UniProtKB/TrEMBL annotation:
It catalyses: 2 GTP = 3',3'-c-di-GMP + 2 diphosphate. It comes from Montanilutibacter psychrotolerans. This is diguanylate cyclase. The lineage of its organism: Bacteria, Pseudomonadati, Pseudomonadota, Gammaproteobacteria, Lysobacterales. Residues 222-354 form the GGDEF domain. The keyword Membrane applies. Gene3D superfamilies: 3.30.70.270. Its EC number is 2.7.7.65. Pfam families: GGDEF, MASE2. The chain crosses the membrane at residues 24-43, 49-70, 91-112, 124-145, 157-177. GO terms for cellular component: plasma membrane. One of its GO terms (molecular function) is diguanylate cyclase activity. Signal peptide: none annotated. One of its GO terms (biological process) is negative regulation of bacterial-type flagellum-dependent cell motility.
Length: 357
């Protein structure tokens, strides 16, 4: 009995073991309090010793047996789904044994249904509800179609723990699951926006920052600049020192970027050995200073164990110009300037020329 779990995860995974453990805890609570509710009816109806023993088994021993079955199974998820169907069958039998005593029978049916929806949705409920109904009908026929729907006050009172504790537990589990989903969505969103190697915003995220900056500039008429830079002869670094050394260079360049920029600026990895920086509220002179500083910082990078490794960057700078209404055009201007820096000897800063100021 549970509202929690991910039936879609792969068999045998730790997620499935957690799912089984959560169901175990819920089953102990649900069947424990549920059997107390049933006992009120059995007591007043003068049930046989065999019926009491069956109830004791269902409430006290079955949760642990079900847990052991699921834990020992090669496919814990499927095993647990079978156990949940058995829960429904038992529920159907108890409803008939109670001769449809209305309050505990309705409670049992509702709680068992909530479980099934929580774990496997309405389709799973439909499947288990049909076996529950069949088990109920068969038991009812076997016991001679007894029908005593009236519920006494004592029977209502012994239903209270089930009525209160179990829905609270279901809500708590649903809330915890909801929080987990929100956390995982946030993490996914962060991963989607981050370059795995450098930890910088990836191209998509970085371009969003550029769009935001461009529209802010159009509104406020404040200056801004875009830097695009590319590591010089990076292929040669990879070829001479190996790919892991190339990766380390990329990480160190990213670290230099993070260390030397303001919170207002947005660095990003554009792809391969190409990076971009959005410099918010920055005029052309300051932008050139930042670009030169970056160039010098990267040139000073030294990698432990590789004393000969040197890396430089070529930087293209594009300022906001009048009637610039597309980030793609802004990036193209910076790219053209970067191309010029490469063409004129690398390890230098070039600008796209035009500026507002
Ligand atoms: N180590 C490493 N290399 C990468 C990565 N992504 C791209 N590269 C390599 O980076 C190199 C980029 O080379 P290019 O930009 O074509 O040229 P370059 O050697 O930098 O020369 P210039 O740009 O003209 O100075 C290619 O060899 C890519 O395989 C990465 O994540 N890690």
């Amino acid at each position: 009995m549970s509202t929690d779990g991910d039936p879609g995860a792969s068999a045998g995974s730790s997620e499935h073991r957690r799912f089984v453990a959560r169901i175990y805890r819920m089953r102990i609570l649900g069947l424990g309090t549920g059997c107390i509710a049933i006992s009120g009816v059995l007591y007043e109806n003068g049930a046989s010793l065999l019926t009491w023993m069956a109830l004791a088994f269902n409430g006290g021993i079955w949760p642990t047996v079900a847990y052991a079955i699921a834990r020992g199974s090669r496919d814990p998820k499927q095993a647990e789904f079978r156990n949940l169907a058995i829960d429904s069958i038992c529920g159907g039998i108890w409803i008939a044994v109670m001769q449809f005593n209305v309050v505990p029978s309705a409670l049992l049916a509702v709680m068992l249904s909530a479980d099934k929806i929580g774990v496997g949705g309405w389709r799973f409920l439909a499947r288990t509800a049909s076996v529950q109904a069949l088990a109920c009908l068969a038991t009812w026929a076997l016991l001679g179609f007894g029908f005593r729907p009236d519920t006494t006050m004592t029977q209502v009172l012994v239903c209270l723990p089930f009525m209160v504790a179990y829905p609270l537990a279901i809500s708590t589990a649903a809330y915890a699951l909801g929080r987990k989903v929100v956390r995982q969505n946030r993490m996914l969103d962060r991963l989607n926006r981050t370059d795995g190697l450098t930890g910088l915003p990836n191209r998509l995220h970085w371009e969003e920052a550029a769009v935001t900056e461009l529209s802010r500039c159009s509104r406020t008429r404040r200056p801004a600049a875009l830097l695009m830079f590319d590591i010089d002869n990076f292929k040669q670094i990879n070829d001479s020192y190996g790919h892991p050394a190339g990766d380390e260079v990329l990480r160190r360049v990213a670290a230099s970027l993070r260390a030397s920029l303001r919170a207002l600026d947005t660095p990003g990895r554009f792809g391969g050995d190409e990076f971009g920086v959005v410099l918010g509220d920055t005029d052309s002179r300051d932008a050139m200073d930042v670009a030169e500083r970056l160039r010098a910082t990267v040139a000073a990078i030294r990698i432990e164990g590789l004393p000969d490794l040197r890396c430089t960057i070529s930087v293209g700078v594009a300022f906001i110009v009048p009637r610039l209404d597309s980030v793609n055009v802004w990036i193209r201007h910076a790219d053209t300037a970067l191309y010029r820096a490469k063409q004129t000897g690398r390890n230098r800063v070039c600008t796209s020329g035009a500026s507002w100021e």
